Fold this protein.
Amino acid sequence: MRLKLHEVGDGDKVALLVHSIISSSDTWSRVAPRLADRGYRVIMPDLRGHGESPQADSYSPELLAADLVESLPAGADLAIGHSFGASVLSLAVEGLRPAKVVYSDPAWRFTEKAVAEIREFAQFTKVATAEAIRPMFPRWQPEDIDAELAGYARWDVRAVDWLESSHSYVPARPVVPSLVQGAGDHHLVPDELAETLRASGFEVRYVPDTGHCIHRDDLDGFLASLEGWI
């Protein structure tokens, strides 16, 4: 599937930004201009069933990863994936071969409780309002709330039908130099996983006082954590 791509900037370097499920490329609306200011041409796909990309009869991490390889340029200077977008990116990195990768609070493992919560939240997205979600994300800017609601309205809830707690997408090793950026709550990147990743060759950094959407909770902290990688 050819994905809808959005671009910001016209620099000599190329950065790919991959959003998570339920969201869209709009999640990067405050990140992309900051990278463009650093000399990047920023390319942001909408995953299948999200944003302006087509919906599909089938969804899986492998299919979403194949879409990235089909739609994005290989050999980018940088690729960043957030949450489950990081999982998809880790499956696509062999084909995309960016110079460097950042996995921002990657959703590589799912518990039964998490799967149930995601499926329940999927239904909630179709009736969500700004008033309902603003208390959930108290540090977000108004434009982040607006972008989130736009993503909720457009995504295909079937895109999480494949989700099972038995799935684990933790990479065995980094294919290219790779940073794992963990949220301050250490929820998706607990200390034991960080130790395993470091032993496998990943660099791991945490951004204090942030939740799952690091780039929205603390944009300056998000970018500071990427020094040496962007």
About this structure: The first helix runs from residue 31 to 36.
